[in-house]
Amino acid sequence: MENKTKIKINGLSFFYNDHRVLNNITVSFPKNTITAIVGPSGQGKTTLMMILNRLWESIPETRMEGSVKIRFDDRFHKIYDQSYPLSQLRRLVGMVFQIPNPLPMSIYKNIAFPLKLAGVKDKGLISEKVETALKNAFLWEEVKDRLKDNAFALSGGQQQRLCIARALTLEPQILLLDEPTSSLDASAASVIEELMINLKDRCTLLMVSHYLDQVKRIADTVMELSDGKLFNLTSD
User: Fold this and answer.
1) Residue 57 to residue 53: CA distance in whole angstroms
2) Which domain holds residue 219?
C-alpha cells in the first residue's frame, strides 16, 4: 500500500564510465522493515545503497538515470531535486559500512560528532543523545564507564555497534548497512542481528549481505541483484 511505502525507485540505471551496473530498476521498499540485498560480488549492491543517500556523487566518471523518492513527513520527496538539501538527506538516511570506521577520538566524541556537525551546541542535549544512541545500539552498558577512552580500544564488534550508534545519533528514518557483520565473529554478528531487528520499530533498514542464513533469520524481504536487475526472492 502507498502509505506503507518508504522508498520508491523508478527507471534507475547507473554507470561507471560506460559500464552499466544497474539497468532500469523499478522497486519500492516498505517502511519499518528489513530488506536484504543479496547477489554475486561486483553487481552493484553497495552502489544501490549509496544512491539512496547520494554518497556516490563524489566518485568520478559516474552517472545515474531515473528517479528516487523517499517519504519524509508524510509525503514523497525527490531526493535528487536540486531544491532538496543534501545535508538534510544525509541526516535522514544513515549508512554503516562493511569495515567499522570509528574516528580517531574518544567513544563519546565519536557519537557526538554528527551532532556538532549539525550545529548542536547544548552539552546537556548532546550527552542525552549520546547515551540514547549507545543504548539503542546495545553498547551503553559496555562503555558507560569509559566514554573518554579511545574508540580504537573497542573490539571489532563493539566498533561496529559504535558506528551504528553514531549513525543513529541524528535519528535517521532509513539505515543502510553494507555487509555489517562480514568482519565479525559469530557471537558479535549475532548481537548486530538482534540490534537490527530491534531497530525496525524506529527506522527502515536496507542491508547488503552474503550470508544466506543471516538473511533468512532477520530479513522481511530478500532481493537479489544480478546482471543489473533486482529480483524479489521472498515468497508470498
Assistant:
1) 9
2) 2-228
What number of CA atoms fall less than 13 Å from residue 127's CA on the CB side? Answer: 6
34-74 pLDDT, tens digit per residue, is 999 999 888 899 999 999 999 999 999 999 999 999 999 88
Domain CATH code at residue 163: 3.40.50.300
Residue 233 is assigned to a structural domain of this protein:
no
Rg of the Cα atoms in the chain? 18
CA distance 211 to 159: 21
* Residues 96, 167: Cα–Cα separation, whole Å: 7
- Which residue is it, cell 541526516? 91
Residues 136, 80 contacting (CB under 8 angstroms): no
**Total domains in the fold of the chain:** 1
Hunting for cell 550508534 — which residue is that?
165
pLDDT at res. 184: 86
The phi, psi pair for 154, rounded to 5°, reads: -75, 155
State residue 182's pLDDT score. 86
CA distances from 72 to 9, 191, 222 (A): 15, 29, 24
3-state secondary structure of 233: coil
DSSP string for residues in 86-143? HHHHHHHEEEE-SS----SSBHHHHHHHHHHHTT---HHHHHHHHHHHHHHTT-HHHH
